[in-house]
Design a protein that fits this description.
Layout: E1 16-21, H1 30-35, E2 44-45, E3 48-49, H2 50-59, E4 64-71, H3 74-80, E5 91-95, H4 100-107, E6 117-121, H5 129-136, E7 144-150, H6 151-157, E8 166-168, E9 171-181, H7 187-196, H8 203-208, H9 212-219, H10 225-236, E10 240-244, H11 256-267, E11 272-275, E12 282-285, H12 287-293
Parallel strand pairs: 1-4, 1-6, 4-5, 7-10
Antiparallel strand pairs: 2-3, 6-9, 7-9, 8-9, 11-12
Length: about 300
């Protein structure tokens, strides 16, 4: 597959490629099995699959020009998604590999996913175009950016949520499933992720992968998130930044309790005008009525 080089990579950061990770673990997803659905991305919340919610939020962002959905079973995804969101001309499906980092490395900077690239996940069901725009609006001066939520902000609004928190001197932080990869300088970060992917939800092991000095400073609370991430990036050759987002940002869907929380959040969102992926019409979206009438369910397959 042809690669983009620094000389011909797009430089207009108002036009991003978005990669949506919609794959499965080798042994499948426990929540999908519990709900009787063939793929986690196809779990419906409030009458829409999580995948369609994420893709539509990206399409409605002012900064996204193309969406690439990565999954092992793209035929199943294409046939089973009940909405027409995947038929939008800006959306493409592609085969993913067995690992997250391997799948990303195979496409970033290619004709399928030219720079700059935003990576998110299909279970990021609360994603909004406003959050996408806010995040990408803060990454112009770095090679890699990571979206995060801060514990005091998240638990102030959602004390019931349970997240994995990374503890630094300036707070506790959890990932928001938003990653900005700007250019080829980010490739060492992807390579590093391949080596530590199995520990992605084990905070201290993840930090330890950048060396004992950084681990010691985190353990002794003598380094903040901004400096810690910058130091980790410099260690393997790229400029990195943490972007702290709103209270909803780190809430994804891994458990039934997460579905219930997402439903409550969607139900209290205000009615707003949104554009559908069909360019010839506009309609009113009423999340409250949709969620109250249509609770989470599995997509039915023949």
């Amino acid at each position: 597959m042809a690669r983009w080089t620094e000389t011909n990579a797009p430089t207009d950061c108002r036009e991003w490629t978005a990669i949506v990770l919609a794959g499965e673990r080798p042994d499948g997803d426990s929540l999908a099995r519990e709900l009787g659905v063939s793929a986690k991305a196809l779990i419906e919340i409030g009458g829409k699959t999580m995948l369609s919610r994420v893709v539509q939020a990206l399409l409605d962002s002012s900064k996204i020009r193309h969406v690439l959905v990565l999954a092992q079973r793209i035929d199943l995804i294409a046939a089973s998604e009940p909405s027409d969101v995947l038929s939008d001309s800006r959306v493409e499906l592609a085969q993913s590999g067995n690992g997250i980092a391997t799948s990303i490395e195979a496409v970033i900077g290619s004709n399928e996913a030219p720079w700059p690239v935003l990576v998110t996940t299909a279970d990021n069901a609360l994603l909004t175009p406003e959050r996408v725009d806010e995040f990408l609006g803060q990454v112009s001066q770095v090679d890699v950016a990571v979206g995060l939520g801060e514990r005091s902000i998240v638990e102030r609004d959602f004390p019931e949520t349970r997240r994995t928190w990374l503890r630094f001197s300036d707070g506790h932080f959890s990932g928001a499933n938003l990653f900005a990869l700007k250019n080829t300088r980010c490739l060492p970060a992807v390579k590093h992720w391949q080596a530590v992917e199995q520990d992605r939800k084990k905070g201290l092991k993840l930090i330890a992968s950048f060396g004992p000095a950084l681990l010691f400073r985190v353990l002794t609370r003598t380094i903040g998130l901004k400096d810690g991430l910058a130091e980790a990036g410099q260690k393997i050759g790229f400029d990195a930044k943490a972007v702290i987002l709103d209270a909803e940002a780190p809430i994804d869907v891994d458990k039934k309790e997460d579905i219930e929380l997402v439903e409550r959040i969607l139900a209290r969102r205000p009615v707003k005008l949104v554009h559908s992926n069909r360019r010839d019409r506009v309609f009113v979206s009423d999340e409250a009525s949709q969620v109250s009438e249509q609770p989470a369910r599995a997509v039915q397959h023949s």
